[in-house]
Amino acid sequence: MKLGRLNHIGVATPSIEESISYYRDVMGAGRIRDPFEMEEQGVKVCFVDTPGENGTFGTQIELIEPLGEDSPIHGFLAKNPAGGQHHLCYEVEDIDEARSWFEGLGKRILGPTRIGAHGSPIFFLHPKDMMGQLTEIMETPKDDTHWSN
Ligand SMILES: CC[C@H](C(=O)O)C(=O)SCCNC(=O)CCNC(=O)[C@H](O)C(C)(C)COP(=O)(O)OP(=O)(O)OC[C@H]1O[C@@H](n2cnc3c(N)ncnc32)[C@H](O)[C@@H]1OP(=O)(O)O
Ligand SMILES: [Co+2]
């Protein structure tokens, strides 16, 4: 398996609205996309763009707010009430090959491969097996439609 680009940094927040004001007014973010809900993933999501090289898409900040009782980030926010850096998402060419790679290394994969916030297949690896970092693996989108928002 070959490590691809850093697609996004997941940042958990108790309030996406507050985080939007922060990225707009404190950090001077150039583009903050419309928030949207992913009920099946238990999160409300909002992408903050950072500039990429030569007009390409830069690594995004993925703001995530709990959605529903069973949100997987309630535990994190209970320990970190102000929110903070939650996960890193790396791109790979082939999500199935990547899944077999990590399984072969005995890394715990959290749940099934499913469609993530960019409309591309993703899975998560347990932080305790990944040097303390909750790690999301995402297949590089085949086209740019996921940037439509
Ligand atoms: C998919 C849509 C979107 C996208 O990009 O497409 C997203 O990224 S959505 C992101 C939210 N979804 C997920 O995070 C799914 C995967 N996460 C999980 O299944 C849980 O969060 C899990 C299992 C990693 C942790 O769950 P929980 O906090 O309820 O469990 P524990 O308290 O038992 O934690 C176990 C152990 O791990 C440490 N931990 C928890 N979260 C993190 C983290 N984000 N980074 C690093 N370490 C983390 C926690 O402190 C515990 O450690 P211990 O030493 O045992 O106390
Ligand atoms: Co993510």
TrEMBL record:
Gene3D superfamilies: 2,3-Dihydroxybiphenyl 1,2-Dioxygenase, domain 1. Keywords: Isomerase, Metal-binding. One of its GO terms (molecular function) is methylmalonyl-CoA epimerase activity. Residues 5-140 form the VOC domain. InterPro entries: Glyas_Bleomycin-R_OHBP_Dase, MeMalonyl-CoA_epimerase, MMCE/EMCE_epimerase, VOC_core. Belongs to the methylmalonyl-CoA epimerase family. This is Methylmalonyl-CoA epimerase. It comes from Qipengyuania citrea. The lineage of its organism: Bacteria, Pseudomonadati, Pseudomonadota, Alphaproteobacteria, Sphingomonadales. The gene is mce.
